[in-house]
């Protein structure tokens, strides 16, 4: 957005990672077992980190801890070098433009009685942006995620599932954030819509200095979008590294099992799926150059 700020190099250091999670522990209940157990990783500016693991491995818990929606039992979370582990309500509010989220089911987080424009301008209003500029920006973002003109004045029920996920993405991006936590953001969509939304996320990232924590149980989805991946099992990191390396030569047996686990038992569906992914990858390659 702005030119590199050389003046502020020092105390916080502009070379700090975008996000750093250090030895994170999260327990549900005071003496409950650790749902997240000593997890550490970092996300660089503009990087997409995939977080994969089977159901119950702690992915959502980590995302919620980063967003301040889940209390942390131990460890630290740093955003652009600043500790936010136990940020106050006021500190979280100051962060809300920079750190955004897209969840699996956008319908549940959109107020059915309010038009889309309201959902999009709300975070800008909180940030003190003037009304005219709020409306201009909301319409700009709606167009950038491929929604038809006039979407601003329509209600959530007037959109398809794929369109609602685009609205959720628009709402995340409207504040021009630094990091977006995407928790199973495409999992509920059918395959071709999934491919469209993934391509959209990749496109939106290209122009901006935008990082993603991309949570998914599907390795193929992560492979498409993430430069690096963290593999989680029962709250612990099994391995992490460049996505290509982890996929080519997984270091842990668990990763191998995770990758081999066919998400669809039907071989025809599996073949169709493989075809879609190959097409998607070819498209991405062509777009890249
Ligand atoms: N509110 C809660 N109270 C108690 N335990 C919880 C709560 N939320 C999650 N857990 C437990 O914490 C562990 C991690 O759950 P989490 O939702 O983070 O997993 P996940 O990897 O996101 O799974 P999924 O792929 O199914 O979304 C699980 O054992 C789960 O049962
Ligand atoms: Mg989850």
UniProtKB/TrEMBL annotation:
Keyword set includes ATP-binding: yes
Pfam families: ABC_tran (PF00005)
CDD domains, A to Z: ABC_NikE_OppD_transporters
Record-annotated ABC transporter domain positions: 19-259
GO molecular function: ATP binding; ATP hydrolysis activity
BP GO terms, sorted: transmembrane transport
Annotated keywords: ATP-binding, Nucleotide-binding, Transport
Keyword DNA repair appears in the UniProt entry: no
Family: Belongs to the ABC transporter superfamily.
PANTHER family from the UniProt entry: D,D-DIPEPTIDE TRANSPORT ATP-BINDING PROTEIN DDPF-RELATED (PTHR43776:SF7), TRANSPORT ATP-BINDING PROTEIN (PTHR43776)
Name of the protein described by the UniProt record: Oligopeptide transport ATP-binding protein OppF
């Amino acid at each position: 957005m702005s030119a590199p700020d050389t003046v502020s190099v020092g105390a916080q250091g502009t070379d700090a990672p975008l996000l750093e999670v250090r030895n994170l522990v999260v327990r549900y209940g005071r003496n409950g077992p650790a749902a997240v157990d000593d997890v550490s990783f970092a996300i660089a500016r503009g990087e997409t980190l995939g977080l994969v693991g089977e159901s119950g491995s702690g992915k959502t818990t980590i995302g919620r801890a980063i967003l301040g929606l889940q209390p942390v039992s131990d460890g630290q979370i740093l955003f652009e070098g600043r500790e936010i582990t136990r940020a106050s309500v006021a500190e979280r509010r100051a962060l809300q433009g920079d750190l955004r989220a897209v969840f699996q089911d956008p319908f549940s987080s959109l107020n059915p009685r309010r038009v889309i424009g309201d959902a999009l301008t709300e975070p800008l209003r909180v940030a003190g942006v003037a009304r005219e500029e709020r409306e201009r920006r909301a319409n700009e973002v709606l167009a950038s995620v491929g929604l038809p003109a006039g979407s601003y004045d329509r209600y959530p029920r007037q959109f398809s599932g794929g369109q609602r996920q685009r609205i959720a993405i628009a709402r995340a991006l409207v504040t021009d954030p630094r990091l977006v936590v995407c928790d199973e953001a495409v999992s509920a969509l059918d395959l071709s819509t999934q491919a469209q939304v993934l391509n959209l996320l990749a496109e939106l990232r290209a122009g901006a200095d935008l990082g993603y924590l991309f949570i998914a149980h599907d390795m193929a989805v992560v492979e498409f979008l993430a430069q690096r991946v963290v593999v989680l099992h029962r709250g612990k990191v099994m391995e992490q590294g460049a996505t290509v390396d982890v996929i080519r030569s997984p270091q842990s047996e668990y990763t191998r099992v995770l990758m081999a686990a066919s998400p669809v038992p039907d071989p025809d569906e599996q073949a169709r799926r493989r075809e879609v992914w190959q097409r998607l990858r070819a498209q991405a390659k062509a777009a890249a150059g």
